[in-house]
Backbone:
């Protein structure tokens, strides 16, 4: 999900390049993702740490603004 958010930021011209995460490779010998939900405290810290307004709004479940 994080990589999807980063790709969206790149494709909407919010970041100049995708080179930082383009080189990230999947883990070896991993067949499926581990589903883990954030605790309420972790979710609050994530939203507070969001530097980009659109990401902060998206993390809160609001529709993104331009």
Residues:
């Amino acid at each position: 999900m994080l990589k999807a958010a980063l790709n969206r930021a790149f494709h909407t011209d919010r970041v100049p390049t995708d080179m930082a995460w383009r080189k990230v490779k999947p883990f070896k010998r991993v067949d499926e993702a581990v589903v883990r939900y954030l605790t309420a405290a972790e979710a609050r810290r994530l939203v507070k740490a969001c530097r980009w307004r659109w990401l902060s709004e998206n993390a809160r479940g609001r529709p993104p603004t331009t």
Observations:
- The chain has a mean pLDDT of 80.
- The radius of gyration is 14 Å.
